[in-house]
Write a structure and sequence with these properties.
Layout: H1 3-12, H2 28-41, H3 46-54, H4 59-62, H5 65-89, H6 95-104, H7 106-135, H8 146-161, H9 165-196, E1 209-211, H10 221-235, H11 244-247, H12 256-284, E2 297-300, E3 303-305, H13 312-320, H14 325-341, H15 343-359, H16 377-393, H17 398-402, H18 407-428, H19 434-465, H20 470-498, E4 511-517, H21 523-534, E5 539-546, H22 549-561, E6 568-572, H23 579-589, E7 596-606, H24 610-613, H25 618-627, E8 633-641, H26 645-661, H27 667-674
Parallel strand pairs: 4-5, 4-7, 5-6, 7-8
Antiparallel strand pairs: 1-2, 2-3
Helix pairs in contact: 2-9, 2-12, 2-15, 3-10, 5-10, 5-12, 5-19, 6-7, 6-18, 7-8, 7-14, 7-15, 7-16, 7-18, 7-20, 8-15, 8-16, 9-12, 9-14, 10-19, 13-14, 15-16, 18-19, 23-25
Length: 680
């Protein structure tokens, strides 16, 4: 094993054979933190976004926080119930993309895919950025370089996910369940102290008055409607990640659909409980937030006061665990970690969706295959790089990133629900069994309600967030849609060009003319000459390019000394260039007959070290590249192994031997063909 392989194995673990795919399937206890961490963690920042937006109306705005939270919870319940139908109807893992493609056509599917891909990137960026912001409560040194710290976290998550979904899921399960225990425990203990013991718990910001933006004064009429709609759309960030389970059904253990639907129900119940509890505690403790961009500010007895920004989770943990510091640090630490790990939902959803799109020809095919850990490594890498770019550009500013968020997920929600209603309507036309019809009618009703709910939310999100940055997300989706359609068109064009015709398999060249590129008279060149002769071509020519007069005379003299029954043709090169004159010569001997072929033989050195490649074969590489674009010309590299090549050979042998010793890496395949009765 060389140094590169050693480092790779150290980072991502040993290789896994395709036959070990079943070992990576997830039980429900692991699937919940893997696929639901995004939706669960959103309760840590969705209440912040509601209160931040309502602060623009001053004290009057906070009175509507519980109504906004209730509306968000209702929409979440509708979406969860709707996606349970999707999980049962489309268990192959295509999720919203498959639903839209099958029921509404390829263009609708690509629209959904564009929205989801953009949303997955934003999920990573927003989650990690929010985690960094929460971490500042305990680590103030993060301030000022949030973007770089967030990028480092994303790269760490990328490395972890390259190890495979099962291993990363097991690692992430403990902090996810720790977050659940922390938030639910904090909610229960806080409500017990306030409602059961009658304690008057006040958040650190409860005594301050909030002055909002003049644009929303007075807070009535259109101004109120606009701000409440904006607060609702920001709170709907709590719904992101719900669709991830429908994309990840193949990763569940059998019965896949049942386990996925159960996990989805668990996710909905836990997320709604946590979200509602946090908003309720915020109201009971008088918690307030202000817009960090300065559109709202605190007053203390009528005097403006500068208060360090602290998140809802930070203020609640500080208030409820005022006599138990361990509880405060546990909740803050768990919140910080879960926000980082929430990106793991996207790291599981994006690569799977990318693989399906690549299979269908809408993305580069390299995204379709699994890596040696049975994870979609290329998709994981692409997602990480895109998210790193976002957090660096926005310096991990959650308030700025959140404006781009949610649009994509509700585009996919709405189109998917429309597709599901079409799905059930289509099947009802042919279904005659009364029990199945009753089940389908119930499912269609659920998806119809889901369509209405998500459609209304989408309109609200677009109307309230468009000018605040949502247009950038819409633009990104449009660009991605055009790019994917272009990739599909390219693959279709290539398929048409390369399709085998009726005579292609039997059409032999009428004449093959061999041309040998001679740069030196040595063993590699003689090997090329002998190989060209052995192929019995129609004619053979040896050609050298006269770059230097003295060197050319020496080459010709050495050629004549060999006594070959083959003349060496010298091509003049007044500008001392090899590639251009040689390529022009080959072009000149090409005939107009489409069945004539010119085969160019180029001697090449095989070396053992990477740095040796820089010292050899550069001219051969350029010539070969130029000739590959010429019709009717084939290029044959004639290898000559230098002594140093044995090092590369030894490395390959060691790797091959190591692979052979691993179970399931070739032995079974070889054995199959040696079994008695196996056809030769």
């Amino acid at each position: 094993m060389n140094a590169t392989d050693f480092v790779k194995r150290l980072l991502v673990g040993r290789k896994l054979a395709s036959t070990q795919l079943g070992e990576t399937l997830l039980p429900k206890r692991i699937a919940l933190p893997v696929f639901a961490s995004d939706a669960l963690s959103s309760v840590a920042y969705a209440p912040d976004e509601i209160l931040l937006t309502l602060s623009l109306a001053g004290m009057a705005g906070f009175a509507f926080s519980w109504e906004i939270a209730l509306a968000v919870a209702v929409v979440m319940l509708i979406v969860v119930m709707s996606y349970r139908q999707t999980v049962h109807a489309y268990p192959s893992g295509g999720g919203d993309y498959e639903v839209a493609t099958v029921n509404l056509g390829p263009n609708a599917g690509v629209v959904v895919a564009s929205a989801l891909l953009v949303d997955y990137v934003l999920t990573v960026a927003v989650s990690v950025s929010s985690g960094v912001q929460n971490a500042k409560a305990m680590m103030p040194f993060l301030a000022g370089n949030e973007g770089l710290w967030a990028a480092a976290v994303i790269l760490a998550l990328m490395a972890m996910n390259l190890r495979g979904v099962r291993e990363s899921g097991s690692f992430f399960a403990v902090p996810t369940y720790g977050f659940l225990i922390g938030v639910l425990g904090m909610t229960a203990w806080g409500l017990f102290r306030i409602l059961g013991l009658g304690e008057n718990l006040q958040a650190p910001t409860a005594s301050y008055e909030v002055v909002g933006s003049p644009a929303y004064e007075p807070f009535i009429g259109l101004a109120m409607v606009v701000l409440l709609a904006r607060a609702f759309s920001s709170g709907c960030a709590a719904l992101t990640g719900v669709e991830a389970i429908s994309n990840g059904v193949p990763a569940f253990r059998e019965p896949k659909s049942h386990n996925a639907a159960t996990t989805l129900a668990m996710l909905g119940g836990i997320a709604i409980t946590m979200f509602g509890g946090i908003v309720l505690l915020a109201n009971l403790t008088g918690l307030k937030l202000i817009d960090p961009d300065g559109h709202s500010h605190f007053l203390d007895t009528g005097v403006p006061v500068d208060v360090a920004h602290e998140t809802v989770m930070g203020q609640l943990a500080r208030t409820i665990f005022d006599t138990f510091p361990v509880g405060f640090f546990f909740v803050i630490t768990a919140t910080m970690i879960i926000l980082f790990l929430a990106a793991n939902t996207a790291f599981n959803g994006f690569p799977v969706l990318g693989s399906i799109l690549a299979r269908d020809g809408f993305l580069p095919r390299m995204l379709h295959t699994r890596g040696d850990r049975l994870a979609y490594s290329n998709g994981i890498f692409v997602l990480a790089m895109a998210a790193v770019g976002l957090v660096v550009v926005f310096n991990a500013n959650v308030t700025a990133l959140i404006q781009l968020y949610v649009v994509g997920v509700f585009v996919s929600f709405t189109i998917s629900q429309f597709g599901m209603t079409r799905h059930w309507t289509r099947h009802l036309k042919t279904e005659t069994d009364p029990r199945n019809r009753a089940r389908m009618l119930r499912s269609r009703a659920i998806n119809t309600v889901g369509l209405a709910g998500t459609g209304i939310v989408l309109i609200i999100v677009l109307a309230s967030k468009f000018v605040y940055g949502a247009y950038q997300a819409v633009l990104a989706m449009a660009v991605l849609f055009v790019v994917m359609r272009s990739i599909k068109a390219h693959y279709q064009k290539v398929a048409r060009e390369t399709a085998v015709g009726a005579m292609d398999a039997r059409l032999l060249p009428s004449r093959v003319r061999a041309v040998i590129l001679v740069q030196e008279v040595n063993k590699p060149t003689m090997r090329a000459v002998n190989f060209a002769r052995a192929t019995r071509t129609s004619s053979i020519e040896a050609v050298t390019v006269a770059v230097d007069e003295a060197e050319t005379r020496e080459i010709v003299a050495k050629w004549d000394e060999q006594g070959l029954d083959l003349a060496l043709k010298v091509i003049s090169s007044p500008y001392r260039e090899v590639t251009g004159p040689f390529v022009n010569y080959v072009r000149g001997i090409r005939s107009d007959n489409p069945r004539d072929v010119v085969c160019v033989y180029i001697p090449e050195y095989i070396v053992g070290h990477w740095w040796e490649q820089l010292l050899h074969n550069q001219t051969a590489l350029i010539v070969r590249t130029r000739l590959n674009f010429m019709q009717g010309v084939m290029v044959t590299s004639v290898p000559y192994q230098l002594a140093s090549s044995k090092y590369a050979f030894d490395r390959a042998e060691r790797n091959s031997a190591a692979a052979w010793r691993r179970p399931g890496t070739g032995q079974v395949r070889v054995g199959d063909f040696n079994e008695p009765g196996r056809r030769e």
